[in-house]
Amino acid sequence: MARHRSPADVIRHRLQSRDERIQRQLMNSSRVPDVRLLPTVLAVWVASFALLRREPWTAWGLIAVGGLIVFGWAVLELRRRGQAWPRRCDGPLARARWTGSFGIAGLLLLTCSVTGLARMADPGQQALWDGTSQNRAVPVDLLVLGHPEPGAGAPSEPSTSGGACVRGCRTPVLVTRVMNGTHWHSVLQSATLQCSSDCSQNVTVGTRLRVLARPESRADRPGDLTLRVLTPAETLGAPGRVERLLRGLRIDFLARAARIPGEEGSLLEGMVLGERSRNTPQFTLVMFSTGLGHLTAVSGANCSVVFTMVVLLLRSFRVRRVLAGGFAMSALLAFTALVGPDPSVLRAAVMAGLALSVLVTGHRSRGLPLLCCTVILLLFLEPGLSADLGFALSSAATAGIILGAVPLSLMLGRIMPYGLALTVSVPWAAQWACAPLVVLIQPQLTPYSLLANVLVGPFVAPVTILGTLALVLGPGGSGLSQPVFQAAEFCAGAIWQLAKLCHRLPGAVLDWPPGVLGFGTMALFGLCQAALLWCFAHPARVSATFVRLHGVLRGDSAAR
């Protein structure tokens, strides 16, 4: 006769089964990461950053270093091929693979240096950067890539324009042509368009403009080029149909969000569209003091949610995997055009495109090599990203999750359910990787940042999914759009209330040393946390080590 089980027993059994399934998945996904591309990433990043100063001797020095590395790799490769190495996965063959990785690093370092030297000799690039040193204006043709944002000292106005330029705005653009003397030269250079008080209202995404601007560059940001507009912009080409459609959706969503009082509306705008024009100082203080500053704008996590949502939706209708990936990539490109070319968004979009390419070829993608290839490709296309702290934070957070989330979940799973361990490990791994870089921006320690991220975690993905659905469904009065928008508003309000709760806790912000000292001490602090967690997760091995050490010390004392 079957024993009747109570509802509590049924729930306990299901939770235990789910926890065991998560444990098996974590054990199957725990493997030694392929880190052979890390030297290449480091070489390309250092070279891209060094070449931002536009000094030819730096490029020639890097060419010499890259040539020496390639020459050394060639010599070792010839010596290896001249001997009969045993064909196995360890020993000489493993050394040969690492030698090959350093050879690739040398080749790409050489290529990056030669490309940087060619950029310095380009007439269009010379005309732009000479204008910064000579303080002279140059006529330029440009393509507007992003949405205007209020500059420093500009009034914070409701962002219902959906991307029209207001007084003192700053807009990401791509310079396509520049006049040097009497000749136009083609060029591809990203820049920031700084409008004056009488800037025209036609600075919208997809517009082609011609302006007379004075190039400026900051000493602490050598790759950051700013074009200060001196005359009203002349329109050369209007946005296409897709850009106009996306702008209409953006205007409608921002108009609805502007009716939400308080910081909830500002948070909803930032999490869905990356809009920051309504952010107040109090809002920024609360979000950054609780480690939730990444939620004030669109990040790579939003792109991952959009990509995954489209794939799962299409796969539920039995659409082929490759076709579902193609539609998801199209949706991700539209989302990127909607929110603007933020470095973290570009990183996520390029990484998703590379993963889809690997999937089409029939191979299995691996996280860390994909991230390394993404960083290398973006640094080749836009060397200025090497000095962008947002791009560094996005790359570090992704690498931290790839490398640390699974091992951290397995360690935490010894003292808590694996489902909860996975929930805690993802933000913890990202914070470990980003904390030293965050100190360079804000020299402070936020003890409750992990708690805040875990608490708001269940509401973050719904805000992105529901907000994007409300945006796609059209105007606020149509069908399901308004209920979905209200659900997204509720989730954003919950995040804001939890952020304020963590901000009010005692000791929410602690001072930390700034600069290089703060970077080093924060990295050491993270290593100490990891060591302490390992000790808690492996008490038997720790106690055995102490017993063995105690025996060694007693033996030494008896010998004396």
Count every beta strand, where a strand is a DSSP E run of 2 or more residues. Answer: 9
From the spread of the alpha carbons, the general shape counts as globular
Largest sheet: 5 strands, mixed, barrel
What is the CATH superfamily of the domain at 123-239? Nucleic acid-binding proteins
Give the count of helical stretches: 18
Q: What share of the residues does DSSP label as strand, in percent?
A: 5-15%
By secondary-structure content and strand pairing, the structural class works out as alpha+beta
The percent range for helix content is 55-70%
Instruction: Enter the CATH topology name of the domain at 123-239.
Output: OB fold (Dihydrolipoamide Acetyltransferase, E2P)
Distance between the termini: 72 Å
